[in-house]
Amino acid sequence: MKVMAIAPYNGLKELMITLGEKEEFELQVEIGDLQEGLTLAKDAVNNDIDIIISRGGTAELIQRELTIPVVEIEVSGYDMLRVLTLAKDYPGKKAIVGFSPISEGASTICEILDINMSAYKVKEEKEIEPILIQLQQEGYTNIIGDAVTVKTAERLGLNGILLTSGKESVLKSFQNAKKIYRFLSSFKKNYLISFDIVQNETEGIVVYNSTSQAIFANPYFNDNFSDNFKHNLNIQDAVKTVCNTGFFETVFNTNNTFWKIKGYPLETSHSKLIVFRINKYRSNDNQDIDGISIVSLKNEVNSTGSLTNIVTKNERMNRILKASTIYADTKEPIWISGEEGTGKERLAKLIHVNSERREHPLLIIDCEVLSKGQWACLLDRSSYDNLLAHNPNGSVVLKNIDSLELDTQKRLASYLKKGLTTCRFIALSRKSMEYLTETQRFDQELYYLLASLTLDLPSLKERKEDIESLALFFIGECNIKFGKQIVGIRNDAKEDLKNFEWIGNIKQLKQIIQESVLLAEGAFLELHDLKRVINKIRVTSESHEIDLTGTLEEIEREIIKKIWLEEGMNQTKTAERLGINRTTLWRKLK
């Protein structure tokens, strides 16, 4: 018996893999939702899969489109109770939006428990967005639902809370699958597709028609991009751009490899086709590209943790968010300052998502890691592999700009003055401009080129009213990521969080919550769960003893970590104190 399970989120995938190890049937678990799930199911039919196990709207869609038996993973009353208990303490108005089994079941539980939460039923995916827009206009900020509802909510700037399925529901689906299989004969359908193209082509080629339907792909594309191409590119917008302008160009990152995409029209006697060619990025000086990443809006929305929502009750932070929304509509460069871990990169992503550039890549360059040779390649307009040149409509985040060496600063200023790229720059600095100017560590001309608009983020110590909300938000992320069902934080644990020093700000809070959630055994995060992690950090940062019983590499890492913590997790200060360059430090801390 061969079973494919299609899970809408990673936590459910991991739970099914764990439970499936005790079953006698062969289980393959993939992540997909609605159309993605349907694509996986179609592939499963061609690979002798006997039964599909899926959830919610994805299960219904597969049942309508395919003849293969489908078993639905129910969202049980236990599952709803866990999520509703967690969500009821979230700040702001809350609503449940989903297909009838979810909306009606959750509504019933809310009535029984006297939870004030509205429920809205949908019959088709296209109904979700209009309902969410209306709820947003009515002041709702938190939306509870299945994966497609949560993704849509997060894309609109709402906080999505996913209804997760627990152990009981998964085991029940396994039992139902085995019952169905007993009544089935062998069900095999093989569809062989041959490709009329040169088999040794070392670039991906995919062809779409004018309605954005893929009609051909070569073997290299299928081997390397078939699962992630549409996650990194808005196909409809790209096809439209080629039809209107005759050309399309962008970049994306997958599996730590950078790729360039070029699109152009292909006129045939019957119709107009759009061809996309995908080539690997090759650095001119053959160096690796640690310190550069490319963020795709689709990838971020599909991952745990929305980049389109920042939780805050803080008055200063709300003013910053309001300003960032206004700034997003401009083309001006933005300078964001704040201590390490205050959320500068998250705010930069939010600005990109709220701008007209949202469908194009966000290139993040860590100035603390990139070498002079890599900078020379990036700023060379004539280079075929110039990533900035291949991202003309996107945004570029210059992370840790305060650590950029002076000669590179001057070269970057010259590049910007010449107007060699049309991408939008967002600079992130851990130091204030006053400090950089007084210490003569920063080129004033570059600052004024990058700081047409400025934002200064407060530390977590200045946002104590946000600690509980942020912790709940991170718990929700961890529940999805690790398949946990933590529903809240005990009051004494909340107080301990508020009284902690937070030298690493939000980044440190997230790390502590994540480790505490993994160690927690109950439904709530208890004080002792946090103490185990917080006390370990305090001991590590305060201890003057280094364990010398390990290997030389382990002892070195302990020393580096101790100094890193003493310097407030500031890599520049740590590298200066240790007498090593930032690239070496970054690799040793990986």
List keywords for this structure.
590 residues; alpha/beta; Rossmann fold; Beta-Lactamase; 6 domains; 25 helices
Q: Class by helix and strand content?
A: alpha/beta
CATH class of the largest domain: Alpha Beta
Query: What do the pLDDT scores average to?
Result: 82
How much helicity do the residues have?
40-55%
Tell me what portion of residues adopts beta-strand conformation.
Answer: 15-25%
Describe the structure in your own words.
40% of the residues are buried. The model is unreliable at 186-198, 283-288 and 301-307 (pLDDT under 50). α4 packs across α5. The longest helix is centred in the first third of the chain and has 16 residues, at 167-182. The protein is an alpha/beta fold and 590 residues long. The chain folds into six domains: 2-74 and 167-182, Rossmann fold; 77-162, Rossmann fold; 204-280, PAS domain (Beta-Lactamase); 292-458, P-loop containing nucleotide triphosphate hydrolases (Rossmann fold, 3-Layer(aba) Sandwich); 461-542, Helicase, Ruva Protein, domain 3 (Orthogonal Bundle), CATH 1.10.8.60; 552-589, Arc Repressor Mutant, subunit A, CATH 1.10.10. β9 (204-209) and β10 form a beta hairpin.
